[in-house]
Amino acid sequence: MKTIAATLFGPSRPSIESLRPVLYRIAYAWCHETALADDLVQDTLSKAWVQRAQLRESGALKAWMVSIMHRCWMDHLRASRDFDNVDDWQDALESSADTPEACCDREQIVACVRAAVATLPPGQRQVLTLVDLEEFGYAEVARILDIPVGTVMSRLSRARAALKRILDRKMQQAAGQPALRRVK
Amino acid sequence: MNGFVSDETLHAFVDGELDAAEREALLARMQSDPELARRVCTVRSLRDMVKLAYAEPPRVHMGAVSEPARHTMLRRCAFGCLVLSAGLVVGWLLRGLESLPSVASAPPLPAAALQPVSLARVPDPNRVMLHLDNAAPDRMLAVLDEAERLLDEADREGRIMQVEVIANSHGLKLLRAGHSPYAERIARMHRRHANLKWVACSQTIARFAGEGQQVELLPVARTAPTAIGEIITRLQQGWTYVRV
């Protein structure tokens, strides 16, 4: 009965609504602004509800909604040209002269990885977060973002290389610090 | 599969995008090529870190952080991050060293080339994590022997010793009911030592589940959201980390 209803009328409101936390995490990883992420999710949910009849396979609900959100974000970027000022992030990342006590906070580690992800170009950031956070397959990501699979792979490759470069640089600066020691 | 393995191929491997034959070939090659294994490890830990970073995104109304405060925090987190990556890489690099330093006052560790690392200024020799991420029989055995040795020695000297065995990736096999070659010994050790804990990585379990394998843990094991998260938390609490 449920399957028939899903095929006839598209996904139900609760099943659309239940994806809110997942969508919010993705949106936040894309734009790194809580308010904007919330707007994107809200937009996506209402568009998904309006267009629900277009979705026929209920298994693909998540991917379908992420692709709607992708279009919402693209619209937003086009409308505002509001790309992150990468130089700001770079400054923040490069200044590491802080007290060793400050280093052991998990929150800060988390925020640092986020800052590094935020320096990536939006396209790479999207691919990276869809693959790493939601474990979408390459083919699914290609469908969601409407790009070839080869582009997914090359963006992912570049994104991870850049991320590693940023984190490695931090690590080399750490070499002179006493915070991490071998225990004899 | 000969010659240099491209980054794209490595990423596809880590993301489970290779077909069975390619995966087998790459796995076989990793056995004999430590550099390749190291690259795979780097990609995996990058992926884990990204996952950890967005496990709990901030809620909406928290947006009112003032600009200077945000910058200070960023600077601090940059530093925290460097310590994390240093820990990961140092742990990896040091595992192959010939010299065998020991956990604090304890005598040298067995030949498995174990290397303790701690974030604390004064490392606590009485709180030790043993991290297992592969299923090589000698590594599994080394984990159990090492845990038993540390606990027995502490018992003899009247110290209170806490040991946590953290298993992820292929090392999860140690804690899987029906797969673990040492299920009985683990149960026995668990009965003997109240301060010995067994932790399995939920992410690894989810990955197995994604591949269609039902994972059932030994009754003594508990799960942590991610092995890396657990290790970081423990390091912050002053535990000593030993990668087996």
Mind explaining what this structure looks like?
Chain A has 184 residues and is mainly α. Chain A is built from ten helices and one strand, in the order ααααααααααβ. The longest helix of chain A has 26 residues, at 149-174. Chain A starts with a helix and ends with a strand. Chain B is an alpha/beta fold. Chain B contains eight helices and six strands; from the N terminus they run ααααββαβαβαβαβ. A six-stranded mixed beta sheet of chain B has the order 1-6-2-3-4-5, sandwiched between helices. In chain B, strand 3, helix 6 (183-192) and strand 4 form a beta-alpha-beta unit. In chain B, helix 1 (7-14) crosses helix 3 and helix 2 packs across helix 3. The longest helix of chain B is centred in the N-terminal third of the chain and has 28 residues, at 67-94. Chains A and B meet through helix 3, helix 4, helix 6, helix 7 and helix 8 of A and helix 1, helix 3, helix 4, strand 1 and helix 8 of B.
Number of strands of chain B: 6
The average pLDDT of chain B is 79
Radius of gyration of chain A: 20 Å
Count every helix of chain A, treating DSSP H or I runs of 4 or more residues as helices.
10
Strand residues, percent of chain A: under 5%
Which range best describes the helical content of chain B: under 10%, 10-25%, 25-40%, 40-55%, 55-70% or over 70%? Answer: 40-55%
Molecular shape of chain B: globular
